[in-house]
Amino acid sequence: MENNTLISIEAIRKHFPTSGGSFTALNGIDLKIGKAEFTGVVGPSGSGKTTLLNIIGSLDSPSEGRAVVLGQSISDLNPKQAALLRRSKLGFIFQSYNLLPVYTVFENVEFPLLLLKFDDSQRRKMVMDSLEWLGLTDKVKSKPAQLSGGECQRVAIARAMVKKPEIVLADEPTANLDAANSHNILKAMVQLNNEFGTTFIFATHDDKVIGYLRRKISLVDGKVTTDEIRNN
Amino acid sequence: MLVSMNLLFRLAVKNLIGAGLRTWLNVIVLSFSFLIIIWHKGLLDGWDRQAKNETIKWETGGGQYWHSSYDPYDPFSLTNAHAKIPSSLDSLVSAGNIAPILITQGTIYPRGRIQSILIKGINSDQKLLKIPSSLFTKVSEDIPAIIGRNTANDNGIKEGDLITLRWRDAHGTFDANNIKIIGIFNTDVPTVDMGQIWVPLDRLQKMMDMSGEATIIVSDKEQKDKILSGEWKFMNNEVLLKSITDLIKMKSVSGYVLYIILLSLAMLAIFDTQVLSIFRRQKEIGTYIALGMTRREVVSLFTIEGSLNSVLAGILAALYGIPMLALQASRGLSIPGGSKGFGLAVADKIYPVYSLGLVISTILLILLTTTLVSYMPSRRIARMKPTDALRGKIQ
User: Cβ–Cβ of B292/A100 closer than 8 Å?
Assistant: First the structure.
């Protein structure tokens, strides 16, 4: 397990200033997450799931403690180094898809590859492979506004996966989807996890997602209450 | 590893086109600014060029030698401002390459009114200036005189009229005689027209008892170094045309007020759009950052997007502006007759001149201003917390 550890979190705390003082979102979290895990951080609203994901994703840094992701200490990264880590190694899937509205499906999925400077032919192949995987080849020229919620989320997954990142962080990926779409998407992610060995970390309180997790980390008031391995 | 400008440029173009109506409103307003600035500057440049060319052809030639006492702004200086024309110039004068002019004050009495006037004597065979002095060869018992159209109109003088002229000769003695208007000429240069009467040089020298003398000597460019005398000082066209240069400069300054208003309107629209964009596109900004763009790259992207408004405006302005400006450059802009009294050469039509320098400087001015206005609000992105941007929480 140690050799496979991609994420190591040691006693992290995160405080946010409020008008009356400060709010503690994470209160002493210790975690290790290994390669190819299909893990979920589960808990009610305000339990600190998204904050934890943001720290792992180098979008935020802990107030105290140490978070090491792919060998890099998040607190020690400057904004540029953090951006380069996200660009090359991390994929994000958001609750509200966060697709770029003026781009087509193809261009949305292509975007991370443009940042990584893949050449035209490589990009085209990787995008088409990714879209094929998620059954979106007929939507290549569509814009996000022309897609259903399920299709948008599949585009978001394709965008997260197209560069074959080491870690995919998915924040409430099924919150805006109906049951059928949720299951389709989760199955696609399980398949990607199996096929490419990508580590998936979810922040969720959706039972449908929880049903697919192989590791469930429960968070309440910024503290890990349970951390269980499941047989899925 | 950082994103290239080429990619940012392509993304910016896509975003800008994708913004639809908002972009086109900005672009249309900005294209007006482009066009009006270029048109107005072109008009002034055209006027400047025409005014100088015409003044050179009618009045200043390749420069003038002034008698050392001559001051065009002091009529009393004329009493002493005359001297013999250097004999070394005789051949050039008779060849018409040098035009000596004798100037004195006089009074005419058209239709019973009294009118002060400058009497200018010029050789009938001079070829240097466009003053139609060849008309003096017409045989006349009276003193032959030609005047400009504006002087004729102002005083109700017609061709063939006999008018009493009074003057003081070199000894201060008053004398008077009839002059016959043998020609009325049209000119765009009021300084050879307003309040002036042109007579043959030899007649004026005789009238004034100033044989062989002149007040100024107009030279063509080739001859200007051949006149060497302490009594004469050379005035080049830079000095002689200074009033035109100054007036055009003054007009340019008032033009800048117009440019500033136009640019401010366009920039206000772009600034507003940028501020609105950054507010409305928080999630998009957060997404760019989450996908791995640095904040500086996102700031650059938004700045390029804003400044591309000016590129699109330039293209749009070229599409509808080039035919319009070209048409006006060929047909000219009619100037009302009343503007002849301005004291500056104004032709019936001004033909705007659009130089490459003018177009490039206008493009650069608008591009730089737009970039600056786009950059200012975009700097906010650098201060955004990506987690807040992703949730659209920034107020």
Answer: no
Q: Is the pLDDT of residue A109 over 60?
A: yes
On the 0-12 / 13-18 / 19+ scale of CB atoms within 10 A, B124 is middle
Instruction: Collapse the DSSP code of B164 into the 3-class scheme (helix H, G, I; strand E, B; otherwise coil) and give the result.
Output: strand
ipTM, 2 decimals?
Answer: 0.93
How far apart CA A187 and CA A193 sit, in angstroms, is: 10
Q: Which one-letter DSSP state was computed for residue B351?
A: -
> Nearest Cβ partner of B387 from A54, A101, A103?
A54
Cα angle B21-B368-B358, degrees, rounded to a multiple of 5: 100
Backbone angles phi, psi at A81, to 5 degrees: -65, -40
**In sequence order, what are the residues at sequence separation of 6 or more whose Cβ sits closer than 8 angstroms to the Cβ of residue B220?**
B61, B62, B97, B98, B128
Contact B1, A84 (CB under 8 A): yes
CA angle, B247 as apex, B242 and B253 as ends, to 5°? Answer: 125
Convert the pLDDT of each residue in B102-157 to its tens digit. 999 999 998 888 999 999 999 998 989 999 999 987 666 789 999 999 999 999 99
Please name the residue ranges forming H helices in chain A.
49-56, 79-89, 105-115, 120-133, 149-161, 179-196, 207-210
HEC profile for B283-295?
A: HHHHHHHHCCCCH
**Chain A residue closest in CA terms to B6:** A114
Beta strand B115-122 with A72-73: parallel, antiparallel or unpaired? unpaired
Nearest CA-CA partner of B386 in A85, A150, A202 = A85
Question: Among A112-116, A161-165, B312-316, B384-388, where is mean pLDDT lowest?
Answer: B384-388
Taking CB atoms and an 8 Å cutoff, what residues of chain A touch B286? 98
Interface of B with A in 23-42 (CB under 8 A): none
Q: What is the pLDDT of residues B9-66, one digit of tens each?
A: 989 998 888 888 888 888 888 898 888 888 888 888 888 888 888 999 999 998 898 9
Which tens digits make up the pLDDT trace of A208-218?
999 999 999 99
Of A50, A88, A102, the CB nearest to B18: A102
Beta bridge partners of A223: A220
Preferred mutation among A45, A54, A59 to probe B, highest tally of B CBs within 10 A: A59
How far is C-alpha B78 from the chain's CA centre?
30
**Can you say how many angstroms the Cα of residue A66 is from the centroid of all Cα atoms in its chain?**
20
Contact B311, B18 (CB under 8 A): no
Residues 6+ apart with CB under 8 A from B195: B115, B116, B117, B118, B151
Chain A residue closest in CA terms to B282: A98
Could you tell me the pLDDT band of residue B340, with boundaries at 50, 70 and 90? Answer: low
What is the pTM for the complete model shown?
0.73
* Interval A115-155: pLDDT, tens: 999 999 999 999 999 999 888 999 999 999 999 998 999 99
Contact A54 B292 (CB under 8 A): no
Distance CA B161, CA B146 (A): 11
Q: Are B255 and B40 in contact (CB under 8 A)?
A: yes
DSSP β-bridge partners for residue B334: B349
